[in-house]
Amino acid sequence: MELEPVKERVSGAVEDLSLCICNAGFKSEFSSQETWLLTRSTYAQTDWAKSVWFSQATPKYAFISWLAMLDRLATMDRIVRWSSGVDDTCVLCKSALESRSHLFFECSYSSQLWEHLVLGVVGNLYTTVWTSILDLLKRPERDKRKLFCLRYAFQVAIYVIWRERNKIKHGEKPLPVIVVKKLVDKEVRNKLSLMKSKGCKGMELALQYWFSTRV
Ligand SMILES: [Zn+2]
User: Fold this and answer.
1) Residue 212: its pLDDT value, please?
2) 55 C-alpha vs ligand 1 centroid, how far in Å?
């Protein structure tokens, strides 16, 4: 059977990643500098790479976003291809097939987070459609702060949604959306504060910018 090695490879990769993420914790840096450098150099030339591997990105968030962009997360629409009979319903909203584009961010659970994070940043360009979101991330933007906030919020949102989804799969309860909103918002603010204290060029007023986009 062709499918078995593929299945093993995919689930193995995701498990390894989960382990890394668990060990790294929510605030620590991703442990493997080598992986970071490898993925940066390997994918530096692809169309969307710059919107993932950008300066000051947090490796554990960038990495999971990179897997999502490659459609390599073990979403149920992919799992049913090699394991028939499994329930492919989204565990967050329980009302649609779980796929990458559903989870990020058409799902009624994750779309609430996404809207909270980026509506004030992108205004009338707001969308929950995966391909349109990627277009937004790639879009040339003169305002460095705006682009950073959009890309960073996107990555933390992907990480947290995937984590909540996995918690349910392992029999745990997901965090209420209102808690997730506060958590991700705080993560973005912490990052912007850190960049300010490090004197990152063009990011001095980024935190004020982020506050101004809260609607
Ligand atoms: Zn859903």
Assistant:
1) 96
2) 32
What is d(CA 12, CA 1) in angstroms, rounded to the nearest whole number? 18
Structural domain spans, the chain? 3-212
How many angstroms separate the alpha carbon of residue 6 from the centre of ligand 1? 26
pLDDT at position 215 = 77
Distance (Å) from CA 125 to ligand 1 centroid: 22
The residues whose Cβ lies within 5 A of ligand 1, an ion, are: 90, 92-93, 107
Burial 144-173 (b: 16+ CB within 10 A, else e): ebbbbbbbbbbbbbbbbbbbbbbeeeeeee
pLDDT along the chain (215 residues), means of 10: 41 39 38 56 62 92 95 95 92 97 98 98 97 92 92 98 97 96 97 93 91 92
- Kind and range of the H or E run holding 46: none
